[in-house]
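Dear H.,

Thanks for agreeing to be a second pair of eyes. The structure we're designing against is below in token form, covering all 492 positions.
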């Protein structure tokens, strides 16, 4: 039997964990996972198969008597059973969706038929019943199509500690697949807040798949684009014991890994300097980022704080606006009583894994004190003539969902450009550039370490938010701004 990652880490001491992310879809070719594993070396493969649209589709399938899990994982696994067994690759995946147990049974049957000695664990789906939500959501609110607890990473870590080589979950938190593997590998506890925060930053970056290598639409450094899971630019990370990490890519992938592509991913879906995950609050304003070589970007210095005193639950509605079918997603922080997941180990035993014992209040990224982790940048706006230029010539733009609203991030490449950006863009300026959000921009905050100015949009109707997120990125990149001509010489 191969060694699962938690056991193998003891033999390697403090060696870095090498983890790859592969976001898969039902339309992918069947041999994609095989080619992905064959073409690179890593300890863990994180397979992220769930989107809001996928969850709605799976809920409809369950209502019609279907399975409730992503069958793509089974299809892909058939091609790679022997390779996983021989190489000892650990797989963590959220393909279980609404029925992790059912998928785990199917996977175990496949492995048994192939004679593969690979241990499988699963974690409950975290599906919220109306009784669990009673009193926590407005009584007159439409019932969501799906409501699931966004479990943290320690359930995955316990599954790996229990001997699993394949761990199947439902829709856990965005960073949980990566963080859970890192916890098991490095033997972190809940008190290792800075290391946990570092791995959350990594998970936030590589869970975006090809965005981290600039091969997805909207990436500031976009080069080539393809939906193929191997060639499409999927990232690999090396996570060290202190949470420091290197972001790189699959050697057969398109694109490149730069400070720009990684910054773009870090700014996706944050709502302030504090980014709350179920296991730790990451201080986004603490992260140091730098180019360490070709296709290698380092993330270091992440600071972590106590996790939120509430549990994240993801609500998804299927709505209609005119002739367009929309899926609306909202993450809400509800009672910590929902935090306990149940891990079923390879030997069939069940282990409840509770949430953190020590927590602290935190809002949508709101600071509890002044942001002092990053010194002010010593730069001034260049003088001389200016000229009207499309903002996208100088800056990157990233739009991401935050609660029932969204975050608009504008970032630049050098200190002088950031000095200009922070002067040029206040709330009236962003509302003038984007009339669709006028009156709904509730907060502006800066992240000097990422040379970013950010705006939180909230309070608009869900249909407005959905339409706005689909269009304002391109609209803002095209917006004309007066820019010192000298700065255009150092733009992306």
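And this is the sequence the design step returned. I haven't edited it by hand at all.
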């Amino acid at each position: 039997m191969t060694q699962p990652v938690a056991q193998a880490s003891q033999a390697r001491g403090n060696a870095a964990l090498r983890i790859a992310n592969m976001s898969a879809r039902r339309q992918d070719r069947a041999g994609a996972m095989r080619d992905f594993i064959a073409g690179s070396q890593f300890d863990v493969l994180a397979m992220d198969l769930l989107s809001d649209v996928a969850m709605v589709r799976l809920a409809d399938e369950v209502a019609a008597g279907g399975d409730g899990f992503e069958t793509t994982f089974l299809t892909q696994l058939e091609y790679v059973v022997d390779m996983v067994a021989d190489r000892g690759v650990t797989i963590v995946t959220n393909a279980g969706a609404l029925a992790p147990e059912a998928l785990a049974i199917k996977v175990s049957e496949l492995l048994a038929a192939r004679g593969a000695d690979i241990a499988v664990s699963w974690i409950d789906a975290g599906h919220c019943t109306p009784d669990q939500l009673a009193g926590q959501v407005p009584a007159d609110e439409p019932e969501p199509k799906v409501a699931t607890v966004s479990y943290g990473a320690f359930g995955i870590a316990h599954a790996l500690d229990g001997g699993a080589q394949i761990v199947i979950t439902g829709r856990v938190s965005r960073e949980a697949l990566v963080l859970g593997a890192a916890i098991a590998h490095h033997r972190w506890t809940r008190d290792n807040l800075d290391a946990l925060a570092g791995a959350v930053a990594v998970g936030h970056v590589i869970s975006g798949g090809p965005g981290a290598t600039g091969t997805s639409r909207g990436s500031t450094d976009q080069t080539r684009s393809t939906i193929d899971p191997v060639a499409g630019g999927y990232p690999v990370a090396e996570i060290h014991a202190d949470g420091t990490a290197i972001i790189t890519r699959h050697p057969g992938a398109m694109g490149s890994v730069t400070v720009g592509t990684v910054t773009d991913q870090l700014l996706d879906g944050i709502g302030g300097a504090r980014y709350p995950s179920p296991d730790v609050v990451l201080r986004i304003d603490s992260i140091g980022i730098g180019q360490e070589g070709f296709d290698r970007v380092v993330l270091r210095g992440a600071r972590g704080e106590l996790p939120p005193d509430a549990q994240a639950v993801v609500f998804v509605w299927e709505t209609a606006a005119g002739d367009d079918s929309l899926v609306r997603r909202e993450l809400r922080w509800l009672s910590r009583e929902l935090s306990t997941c149940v891990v079923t180990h390879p030997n069939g035993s069940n282990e409840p894994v509770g949430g953190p014992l020590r927590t602290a209040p935190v809002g949508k990224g709101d600071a509890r004190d002044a942001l002092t982790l990053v010194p002010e940048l010593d730069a001034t706006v260049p003088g001389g003539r200016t000229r009207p230029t499309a903002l996208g010539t100088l800056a990157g733009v990233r739009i991401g969902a935050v609660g029932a609203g969204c975050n608009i991030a504008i970032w630049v490449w050098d200190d002088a450009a950031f000095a200009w950006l922070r002067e040029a863009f206040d709330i009236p300026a962003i509302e003038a550039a984007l009339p669709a959000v006028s009156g709904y921009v509730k907060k502006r905050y800066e992240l000097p370490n990422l040379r970013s100015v950010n705006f939180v949009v909230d309070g608009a109707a869900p249909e407005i938010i959905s339409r706005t997120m689909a269009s304002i990125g391109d609209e803002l990149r095209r917006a004309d701004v007066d820019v010192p001509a000298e700065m255009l010489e150092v733009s992306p």
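Two observations from my side: Residues 226 and 232 are 5 Å apart (CA to CA). The longest strand covers residues 311-321.

Warmly,
E.
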